[in-house]
Amino acid sequence: MRMFKKVKIKFDGWSILSFLFVALLIIPSLHIFVNLLLPANENWQHIKDYLLKDYVTNSFQLVLFTGILTVLLGTSLSWLISVYAFPLRNFFKWSFILPLAIPPNIAAYTYSGLLSYTGMVQVTLRNSFQIQADPRYFDIMNIKGAIFIFTLFLFPYVYTITRAFLERQSASLIESARLLGKKPLAIFFSVILPCSRAAIIGSVSLVVLEVLNDYGVVQYFGIQTFSTAIFKTWFAMGDVNSAIKLSSSLMLIVLTILILERVLRGRKKYSYTTTKVRPLTPQPLTGIKGLLAFSYCLVVFAFSFLIPTAQLVYWSTLTYSSMLDSSFWKLIMNSLSVALVTTLLVMIVAAVIANYCRTNNHLLSKLYAKVTVLGYSIPGAIIAIGVLAWFIFLDKQLYGFHQIIHTDSVKLVLSSSIAMLLFAYVIRFLAMGFNSIQAGFEKIGTRFSEASRILGVNKTGTFFRVDLPMIKPALLSGCVLVFVEVIKELPLTLLLRPFNFDTLATKVFQYASDEMIQEAAIPSMIIITFSLLAIYFISQVETKGEN
Amino acid sequence: MYIQIRNLSFGFKNSPEPIIHNFDLNVNQGEIISILGQSGSGKSTLLRLLAGLEKPWGGTIVINHQVLFDATTFVEPEKRGVGMVFQDYALFPHMTVEKNITYGLGKLKRSERGHRLEEMLELVNLKELSHRYPYELSGGQQQRVALARALAPKPSVLLLDEPFSNLDADIRAKIRGELKKIINKAGITCIFVTHDIEDSKALADRQVMINRGKVNKVAACY
User: Fold this and answer.
1) Which of B54, B78, B133 to mutate to test binding with chain A, by most A CBs within 10 Å of its CB?
2) Three-state DSSP class for B161?
């Protein structure tokens, strides 16, 4: 009797659904590891003997230098902005988030267009100043160029997280260091950097994961990395087996980074003991110092947002009349519809798992939470290969079933449908929905649900009548984040889309690959506009929440 | 005995020591009991155990001949028929006073629900505020809404967690009187938790002092 009761308490609809969702999430990854045991073919032997070393060194260089440079740029800017007052400080404070709206591959196309022989910079030098500069000076299509692009368009991760930390946590620390007679630079190195270590490491690991996820930039610049290799083995050689072996090698690197992050971050998390939040009063910088701070900020802002956006707007004005036809609307509709459906799926799955984790505090629920957010750390190409391999496997198993429905059914039904792409999107972006919902739940606490249950309403009723309406802002933020990420997504979409299915992001990629950079401007601008709107919306929700 | 608590024990996951240790208490129907103790003495935890929000390590809880907890039974909070007013009231911020009060009346017919709402609004004297949202009410008014919400489904017992801690000192005496009147009028068995001996004296028929999860002393109030 007792056993029966216990079992009954544990297995309700929430636990069954959560289990199902989590199982679906990890099956593709498991599939990768199972396939790893298959014997290697000659392609893999070739890759291992001649190419793997290049992939490793190139990926390593990109990650290392982008990491170092984003930390320097991000922390120095967040320090300047939180500790000092100088001209236009409030403007720069939020404008440094804007580069996040520009996907690095779009920035890469824009900069290479800008700096090419027929681009704005060289043309101006030739025509207005009669300078015939060596075109090699302007070549950014190499590793250094990629690092430049990644740094400029990913540093906001470090900037925003570190600044939030500095604003909330450091007032008393900085002030006591000042009173103890330390100079600003000494405070920066002896107090700020060590204290915000966790914030910096957390944010730079996001940057690193983005770099490893990237396909657009490295492909365009012709740099051989893991992503380009996975694409090549699949598209050019049609070799899923080797693609899986490459993916698992990359996966090992990602896991190493995640573990490294844990170790480097140490036992401390973001916060320390005080609960009182006292904002730091910024010190005014006058004269030459103020001017220097201002110029530094202006240069970064110009390169990371103003210049590429202006260039894209200019190109858009050249091409809009030939671009805006019915096929273009189809493109927008494609992007919007996959983004909407994905957002809906992600939020449902995330809400179920988050609610399960909240109402059950045991090992299994903690494990669920970990698995749910893992997808965002895994580069798109790996997820794509895992999902692809699994769907092909499913199709093979289901072939008999397909034939019952359609006697002349083709072999690949699921793996040639949009379902495969949507499934992969959900795995990749579930973390964003889940984190938002979890933050919402943490904010409201458990008292309201408890009150509801004492009043006789069960878990599910409570969830719909009390929990969901109360976490509405968090839900909305989650939706917006997921939506925009899907609109921007490239590697997954390229690998898994059905034949002839294009989104804004894949079209931009295709135009750029065909050297039609000006034509890529309008779809790029639409992606950027969506991202900007999302940033605006979320910052509004956040300021509202703080008030 | 209307409420029987026997040998109740409970502790949090990470603590080796139980917070509630072999706790025993009997309560008669209609009685108002106050549980007095310092913070950390386990008094709020006791209410959460009665409400089913925490699962005890062992012991039994019986209310009105219904076993709510023993070695083989654990009745989920939504099926216990227990009313509770939280320390910070936990009024649903997205619902009006009216919606808050009728929240637990899902099983009643619409007309009966309306009738019960009227009764409750009258009991706590909030008729004219039924369309307001919780943030538009004063602390005392919020407390009365929470009380009405807890009483509306006709619970077998009313649990109050530190009912006066959120109120200013100058209106405390007035609210005490009001609360006593409402509880008497509703004729309900009531257990409340407080650290203030004055509150305890003013409201309770009997007071139970607890220390480290054990009954220290039981005294009648006159």
Assistant:
1) B78
2) strand
